[in-house]
Amino acid sequence: MGEAFAIARRLRELPDDALRRLTPDRRASSARIADFFDFAEALLDDASVARRMALLDRDTLAVLAAALDGTERQALATTLGREQSEVDAALERLEHDILVLDDGAGPIRPVSAVAAVFEEWAASGRPGRAELQLPAAAPTSHATRPSPDTDALASERAAGAVGIVGESLHELDREPARLLGRGAPSMPDLKRLAAAAASTPEQIELALSAASSAGLTDAIGSSIRLSEVGEAWLASATAERWLRLATAWRDAIPATVRDHILTAYRRGSVDLVEELSWWYPLAEDAVVAPTRAVDAVAELLGITVDGVTSGFGRLLVDGHAADAASALASMLPAEVSQVVLQDDLTVIALGPPTAELDVRLRALAEPEGRAQASRYRITTASVTRALADGDTAEDLLAYLESISLTGVPQPLRYLVSEAASRFGLVRVGTIRASADASADPGRSSYIRSDDAGLIAAISVDQSLVALGLRPSDEHRLTSRIEAATVYWALHDARYAVVAEDDDGAPLRIRRQPVMRTALAAPAASTEPDLVSRLRADDRGDTSSAWLAKQLEIAVRDHTPVTVQLQHGERRSTFTIEPVSLAGGRLRGLDRSADVERTLPLAMITEVRIAG
Predict the structure, then answer these.
(1) Where in 518-603 does DSSP place strands (E)?
(2) Phi, psi for 278 (deg, rounded to 5)
(3) Mean pLDDT over the full length of the chain
(4) Burial class (CB in 10 A: 0-12, 13-18, 19+), 397
(5) Highest mean pLDDT out of 65-74, 408-417, 514-523
(6) Are strands 497-500 and 426-430 parallel, antiparallel or unpaired?
């Protein structure tokens, strides 16, 4: 009872953020926690203690193991041969994790489950208490300075990673990816993104993980798509893009292993999984899995190359992020702001295009490849898209003239003029709650054109049967399907289609995920979280609350208890079998006197389990 009481009192004094961290760390089920005493009992459970102990590093485990011998704080350093500051830091971590009690007036007291956990682990062949207290050297790894070859390869990887993330984001902007139940994109979408980025599904999954950590994507409902931060990222320079990804990678390293991982990278060369497995000898997959993920993204971003930390990677882990980006920028090839326009309607950038050039070209052309030279192709659909964004044919030709090293070929001029002449020939819009809606009940969107023959052709096009098109007149069709879906169906069927708003102005519509209607974003919970609920239900005085809680448990379990009462200057003690606790009174059977007693709760000052 004393241990749980002390833990409950400590929990009540902790700040809210520390309490919230304990819940997922120890997997305490909030549904079964009604007050701080329930919370204390959940944290003292053997399984809960074992989960937290498994995530302790070797130094902290050594202090915890030694503390089981009833050693005082000052003597622990002598026993372990450690500096007092190291022991104090470990004890602070252990107190924060609710694994030891220290009242400052005696030996450090690990919670009761700690000894049992150590014994169970030793019986299963894992390091025991005695072994953990022995001095031991970490796996040998020598400090390595990056060579020019290492840095050159690292810079190539960094630029390649930025390119993969960039192409993935552009593809997500065109068509978001569906999320599976485990929060990962579906394999068909990974393959689609891999094709767009000339990469592999495995690299795409890593790239999307890095992008998510950097806030470049949003997970909305059942899909993942480009975020506003991602849009701004796409318009920045390569080194700036890398910097955001790399700093997000560093900040996302799990707090429990961050110091050891960054220290290992600073040394320059290390088998990270081997080293972290040594530092956390009881964690097994709980540390190995996140460590592999951290190492994989480090290799993707060029922070390391085959386990050797690059020069700019070392600057990053040392906390000099801006210097790391500058060092990387100095190793990247110069970006180009002009292109070669060819008769076959391709656009060739003879080097990495500037972010401004890339974004502008993607607005009027389709990207076809990105390596030493970037390649785009101008098509009728891409020009139509640019016109829908507000450009005119004259604007497009003037821009192409300004960036071309070879002028604008005649075939390209003809394509732009032809697309402009057909622009707006077929228009798609939404039927609003107006006279249109009363004329077309149950219909959501329309297709219109001044060319009655074109409307007739669309109405009998077999590839559009799923739209359920129905004529309103010779210039208009309606559909029960939303306008965005109708627009993309016509676009895929190669019609020169333009979406329009209520005023007839061109409107750009982004492609939506095919299964978007399958799931909606979960509604935000209106229930208070565990910590808020505990604060609201806190009965004020910890001792009184604890007494009431113990009596409730005794009544529930029919457990005989010895209670002490204070009435005025007198004290009385009774041993009873509790029957009920209600109305501020405890009722129970006193076997020794063979009477039923009713005791005021306000007078009870102590409760002990009888016997």
Answers:
(1) 561-567, 570-582, 585-590, 595-600
(2) -75, -45
(3) 85
(4) middle
(5) 408-417
(6) parallel
